[in-house]
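The material for today's practical consists of a large collection of protein records. A record pairs a protein's sequence with a compact description of its fold. Instead of coordinates, the fold is spelled out as a row of discrete tokens. We will come back to this pairing of sequence and fold again and again. Here is such a record, shown just as it appears in the course material.
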Amino acid sequence: MAEPVWLTEAGVRASREDLDDARQDVEKYSKLAVTGSVAAETLRKAKVRVDVAQAGLDKAQSALAAARAQKGYAAITSPVDGVVVAVTRRAGEMATAGTPLLTVESREVLLFKAFVAESKLSEINPKATVQVRIDTLKGKAFQGRVRGIVPSGDDITRRYEINVILPADPALVPGMFGRADFVFGARTALLVPRAAIVRRGGLDGVFVLDGNAARFRWLRTGKEIDEAVEVNAGLAAGETVLVGATDTLRDGATVNMVAGTK
């Protein structure tokens, strides 16, 4: 865009010089016309040339202003400092409104993008912290906060994008996959360690300690929370659960407690 501006600037200079020359002719012919040294028609044509030169200068100045405005639109400034990680349009290619030209990766703010069902949007507390666990970091948890909700959902899934600001941590790298835990409410639940779950006959259960005997209980389980499993039915609070039971353990088997174990 620099070449059109340079050309229009040259046009303005040429038009201004032509106007100055025409004004000098009018001044010269006006003095000679008083003494009758030049014809009145010559003076009239000189004045007409001044008007034409003035119109040419006005046109050149308008062209210069338009070229400068176009140059302003052509200069694109990134809102953040960062590194260009993708270029989707090259010089000479057509670019329409709304089309990304390039992608700039900034480390100033690291955002985690999560998607929430439309029915749950009203339950999200923007002031509450959000726990984000990154899979590649072995489920390491980071405390983030909701930055905002993108006000345009997916027409098919009816889900909305939520941006969570993550803390500055060198272990976090853009592109990592993780899971965000949004608290939509709280309730009391009975949990057992995941390692205590035993699968028998295609169903889940646990061994509980009944005196010195191991008793098997079928369970109706619910959600998995970290390393624990929610129990909806089959177990009462306060019962002792055996963790790490092997396939050889049978219902009614005697259990010997070792001092110092739990």
Observations:
- Residues 40-74 form the longest helix (35 residues).
